[in-house]
Description:
The protein has helices spanning about 10-20, 20-30, 35-50, 55-70, 90-95, 100-110, 125-135, 180-195, 205-210, 215-225, 250-260, 270-275, 305-320; strands spanning about 75-85, 115-120, 140-145, 160-165, 175-180, 200-205, 235-240, 260-265, 285-290, 300-305, 335, 340. It is built from 13 helices and 12 strands. The protein folds into 3 domains: about 1-55, 434 Repressor (Amino-terminal Domain) (Orthogonal Bundle); about 75-180 and about 310-335, Rossmann fold (3-Layer(aba) Sandwich), CATH 3.40.50.2300; about 180-305, Rossmann fold (3-Layer(aba) Sandwich). The protein has a 6-stranded parallel β-sheet with strand order 2-1-3-4-5-11, with helices on both faces. The protein is elongated, with a radius of gyration of 25 Å. Helix 6 crosses helix 13 (about 305-320) and helix 8 runs parallel beside helix 10. The model has no long low-confidence stretch (mean pLDDT about 85). It is α/β, with parallel strands linked by helices.
Amino acid sequence: MAEQNITVTTTRELAELAGVSHMTVSRVFKQPEKVRAETRERILALAEECGFRPNPVLSMAMAIRNQKRAPDQAPTSTMAFVHSNSRIDTWHSEAHLSPYLQGIRERAKLLGFGLDEFWLNPKGLSQKRFCDILDARGIHGCVVAPPRGQLQRLRLRWGDRTWVTFHHDSWRPLLHRVAKDENYMMGKSLRELRRLGYSKVGLAIPRSLDQSGGFIMQGRFRVAQERHPETGKVPPLFYAGADIPEAKSEIAAWLKRYKPDVLVCADVRAMALLNELGLRVPEDIGLLHLNLGLDTPGWSGMYLDGSRIGAATVDLIVSQIQQNQRGIPEQPYELLLRPQWRRGETL
């Protein structure tokens, strides 16, 4: 063992002191399963005695540098992307979802990771089979896509690896996640509408969307109504189901009764619904979308590129891996990104 006063600051110094290669020490901290248990425990004990701690920031910087130096180089490790939507191709075929997966894949590649996709579904993989594949491939980091889809709860071998999700916190158990700042999103939307002179703002979104966000949007909307009574108190409408066309009769009655001069929504089909009801946008009623994407060209509303959410998700999972934090977090936390206001043709 080391002498009492020896201090080690680099992996090369630790390797020399332990009488092993630099690569062996590096694997102890990055891929411990590839080092014999006896050797691993000896090196970890020596590191503890000498006060050595690996620098995760330096490790990430080296990974980025190496990957940029050789962009066609094979990935040094692999992450998993898992979802349980009704279709296996959902995250590729849906215009508003594909940017998330693209951001995850591109950021993972930049940091030296490959990305394997998995579909948990009665027609796809079972949860046990999924965990078995992760073990066989040595995958330690997993991105769990929302929403729950065909599964109400994940029953996985949580302690074996690192998990991160994004957007909704509908999964149980709760995981670290990256999300939109919905409080800022709603507040900014209402400020812009007041600036443009709209006096009766109507909010109509799915009840499930309001619930999955912890009622943040509803709370911010009601507070704004109390603080700015001159804008008119149109009660928000939270309709059942996820699709606005199914709520046509309910929305028609709500519009007829309260006559809002602008509709705040989260469904691209709101435009067609208003047209069916004989309302022109923006002449008769303004329209604001809370989640602009590739399927809403020319709309006014709040925009956050899904690829930014995806990239931040990878950054979060890499930081957890480098700190060797695995399993269900005792105190799950959120990384919130603020969307941007975009003025389009619907206001």
